Amino acid sequence: MTTARDLMTSPAEYLNGTDTLDVAAQALKTSNVGSMPVRAEDGTLSGVVTDRDIVVKAIAEGKDPLSTRVDEISSGTVVSVGPDDDVATVSKAFSDNQIRRVPVLDGDELVGIISQADLARELPNEKTGDVVQAISRN
């Protein structure tokens, strides 16, 4: 049985909520990703920030990327899976929440991240199409 542990990229990179948006943008660029989990000061996962968040919630509203903190614009809702969750559970998390990346948490510890591409490599073509369609629905 394929599990989240088999699919995930580890270690997962994250941003601190106290990081500024310029730091976040550079981290996204360096890692060549469109989103990253955000860690609160207590070490728990507190949200996710996307390149779109930076542009739409900050830059377009005139916020200063050198002083605006990531935790001011990141989503507060985090959908995650556990490392031992099976591929069906992971697929459901993607589909039900229309997300393209899902953090893998072992308790409160971020141990990996699964992208839509990671999932697509594991699923049969028909299932991959179903997940992509569910993620992309309006």
Verbal overview:
This protein is an alpha+beta fold and 138 residues long. The chain has one domain (4-136): CBS-domain, CATH 3.10.580. The chain is 38% helix and 19% strand. The protein is built from six helices and five strands; from the N terminus they run H-E-H-E-E-H-H-E-E-H-H. It has helices at 4-7, 21-31, 51-58, 87-97, 116-122, 125-136, and strands at 15-16, 35-39, 45-50, 101-106, 109-115. The strands form two sheets. A three-stranded mixed sheet has the order 1-2-3. The protein has a two-stranded antiparallel ribbon with strand order 4-5. A hairpin with a 5-residue loop joins strand 2 (35-39) and strand 3.
Quickly describe the structure.
The protein has 138 residues and is α+β, with helices and mostly antiparallel strands. The protein is built from six helices and five strands.
What's the gyration radius in Å? Answer: 15 Å
Report the β-strand fraction as a percent range. 15-25%
How many beta-strand segments?
A: 5
Instruction: Tell me the number of structural domains.
Output: 1
> Based on the structure given, which CATH architecture is correct?
Roll
- Residue-averaged pLDDT: 89
State the separation between the terminal residues, measured CA to CA.
32 Å
Q: State the shape.
A: globular
Give a short account of the largest sheet. 3 strands, mixed
At the fourth level of CATH, the homologous superfamily is: CBS-domain
What is the level 1 CATH name? Alpha Beta
Helix content class: 25-40%
What string gives the helices and strands in order?
A: HEHEEHHEEHH
**CATH topology heading:** CBS-domain
Q: How would you classify the helix and strand content by structural class?
A: alpha+beta
What is the overall number of helices? 6
The oligomeric state is single chain
Uncertain runs: none
